[in-house]
Each structure stands twice: as C-alpha cells, then as structure tokens.
Design brief:
Layout lengths: L4 H6 L7 E4 L3 E5 L9 E5 L11 H22 L3 E5 L15 E6 L20 H14 L3
Length: about 140
Amino acid sequence: MADTIFSKILRGEVPCHKVYEDDLVLSFLDVGPISRGHTLVIPKEPAETLDGLSDESAAAIGRVLPRLCRAVMQATGAKAYNVLQNNGSDAHQAVMHVHFHIIPRYAERTSGAGLGVVWKPQEFDHAEGERLAERMSKLMPQ
C-alpha cells in the first residue's frame, strides 16, 4: 500500500485535530472540509478499499461510526449529515486508505457550497437482477 497522508497521521508525522482514537480506529477533522465539523474516520489497518479491510477493523469502524455521527451532530448543531465512503479512483477516492467522511449538513448552506449528490437511476432488469443476486449470494462466506 502506498504511503498516504493518513499513514503519516497514524505515525504522528502529520498533526491532526483528533476526535476519537482506540486500538483500531482514528477519527479527526478534515482539514479540507465540505462543511463545519466534517470528520474523517479511518482504520489503523492499512487497506486501500473497504473490501481489503479485515472483519475486525470493519467491525471496529461499524461500532464507532454511529457514536461519532451523534457527537458530530451534537457538537455542530447540524440536523442532517452524509456518511460518504469511496473505493478506488473511479469512485472518486483521492486518498488510497479506507476512510469514511461524516459531513454535517446545514439548512442555511450557501448556494454552491458543500456536497452535491446527483442520483441517476438506471432501468432494472429483474431477470438479470435475480441472476446477479444469486451469484453474489453464492460468493458470500458463511
């Protein structure tokens, strides 16, 4: 795995505004925030994408992520938020280390600022969907 800004933060070579830390997870404020309180959550385990993360680290993030969302909401007064996680450069991942963004959303958001989401649903082929779901299901470890 490439050396990233997150690995430098984990080694203490780059400072951060820490929000939370345990043996497996570190959370800190994003220094290029989309909104006030924009928080990052990273595993200490080096993995580029979520599918490369161990079950133990994934469970640790899953355990702490809701608690961090509550803390961000209470501290910022935001009434809504996005949790964003990208995997691979084609999915707009910029830092090749698993990370989750907690992005508070504010009603008074300035026009043009913040996170924009465009959702363009495609036609769904139910026969293909049935075949794909069955294939995925068979690939799931028990």
